[in-house]
Every structure is written in structure tokens, then in C-alpha cells.
Write a structure and sequence with these properties.
This protein is mainly beta. It is built from two helices and five strands. The longest helix has 8 residues.
Length: about 110
């Protein structure tokens, strides 16, 4: 999928497949053509990462911020993970959570 495809409606549609669990794993998607404009290291140890995109989707990566820096903090990204919704101050946005360290330069 491309960032433009990841809308609130798309994420809601994926959520109709729930519940996920043993024997019915969450479907992982490949995100392509993601262009980053900035990134933020998060957490006490700065081991979590938020990559802000040029569109309406951000990438989250937990425990693998070092991997992102090791691959040169690329601007064009391909990642495998799962989209979700973030609600902050009554604003809903789409975030793509990377599975493990499945992120690389495009």
C-alpha cells in the first residue's frame, strides 16, 4: 500500500477483521513510497521512533530507532507493519507501526 491509501476509512475496514490472535494473525502490509520529512526519537532511552511523512501518515517504530539511524535515516522508505489510528486532541490520524525492524530505504 502507499501512504495515500491509508485513510481512516481503510483502517476502520481492516479493523472489521478483528479479533486477531493465535490462528488468525493480524495482516501485515508493505508500505511503499513513503517520503519522510522529519523524525523524532522518543522514550527515555530514545529507542523509539516517529517518522513524519510528507502526507497524512506517520511511521512508528518501537525499540529499533538505532536501526533507522544505522541505515542512514532515509527519506524514501519501505516498511512492513500495520496501520492504526491515533487520536490526539480530538484529531484522528493514521499511523503505520513497523513490525520489529522491517524498515529499509526505498
Amino acid at each position: 500500500v502507499e501512504p495515500v491509501d491509508l485513510t481512516v476509512e481503510y483502517v476502520d475496514e481492516l479493523d472489521t477483521l478483528r479479533p486477531f490472535g493465535q490462528g488468525f494473525e493480524k495482516p501485515f502490509l508493505q508500505l511503499t513510497n513513503f517520503n519522510s520529512k522529519d523524525f523524532l526519537l522518543m522514550g527515555e532511552n530514545k529507542n523509539h521512533l516517529k517518522v513524519m511523512g510528507t502526507g497524512k501518515v506517520d511511521i512508528l517504530m518501537f525499540s529499533y530507532a538505532d536501526h533507522f539511524r544505522e541505515i542512514g535515516a532515509p527519506q524514501k522508505i519501505i516498511a512492513v507493519g500495520y496501520p492504526g489510528l491515533n487520536v490526539w486532541k480530538n484529531k484522528i490520524s493514521v499511523q503505520f507501526q513497523v513490525k520489529d525492524n522491517n524498515l529499509r530505504p526505498a
